[in-house]
Write a structure and sequence with these properties.
seven-stranded mixed sheet; binds pyridoxal-5'-phosphate; 11 helices; alpha/beta; globular; 365 residues
Amino acid sequence: MIPVAEPSLGKEELKNVVEAIKSGWISSKGKFIEVFEQKFANYCGRKYGVATSNGTVALHLALKALKICKGDEVIVPDLTFIAVANSVIYCTAKPVFVDSHPDYWCINPEKVEEKITTRTKAIIPVHLYGHPCDMDPIMKIAEEHDLSVIEDAAEAHGAEYKGKKVGSFGEISCFSFYGNKIITTGEGGMCLTNNEELVEKMRILRDHGMNPNKRYWYDVIGFNYRMTNLQAAIGVAQLKKLDEFIEKKRKIAMWYFEGLNELEGRKLIKLHPEMPWAKCVYWMYSILVEDKFGINRDNLTKKLEEKGIDTRPFFYPIHVMPPHKNNDKFSVAEEISSKGINLPSAINLKEEEIEKIVREIRSIC
Ligand SMILES: Cc1ncc(COP(=O)(O)O)c(C=O)c1O
């Protein structure tokens, strides 16, 4: 099978992990954690990093640090990974869904304001499938309504909005380093911020709520959301390759563009967008299968599978699933979700493999 995603791990990762093992520091103390936090924060243009055990708890930690609690509302995109809405529920707050932008699939800023109430406390823009959100209008709305912005950049390490890295806009930004992400630590995540008070809070909450000046004294209820030194050892090695990985992702996107551009011209498919203000990192190179294609997305998936090509359907709109069911209409998210397919986007893919995928898609339509 040509994989949708696959980690790219090498000698440097192995060397760091061996060093961590030899040092004996395999839990959440050890030199790699702070190095990873500091270097990743620097890379994204932020002062502080708080490494976590995964991206879901990074979101939860950010929401807790911002004191999101019962009765609060948090605006989230309807079309995204489920962890975004779940993390709001973990705080006993309410996720309020907003439809997608038809041109670039992320949250539509024009639809945000109508969802704001006196209970709204925060917005979580998600840079979906590697494409940045339109941050200027989001930041403006947040400022006007005194809302916190938590960027979710789990799928967009290194993407840029108007020349500035994603993850550098919100009060806090969150990342995932799961095995299918652009850089990985196996499981892992991080919160970034410039705010000294918030970083202190997140570090305390990550460590059961322990007072940093009084061992085994807990002023608040916290969590064990720490990253291990073994994970961070991999992260440090991966981070050195991030720019190279992004270049390869963009090369893969260019190969797909060259092969499938003509089908977009005939309105059979829509290609992964890149807005003029965006540098997309194509975490998952994706297309929308239009009605004119001849067969629908699910049948295309099956046919590609028969040819040894792995794909993924887009996320379901969150509002249609039982825990978050809501009868509002999110017509753009619903349409994109039903037509969207993630094509193989692993960093190690070769041009011949992309050519094969392109050939198969062209032969089916
Ligand atoms: C947008 C988004 N947010 C959050 C997460 C959660 O990250 P993790 O799987 O590391 O818990 C993911 C994970 O895939 C994601 O895609």
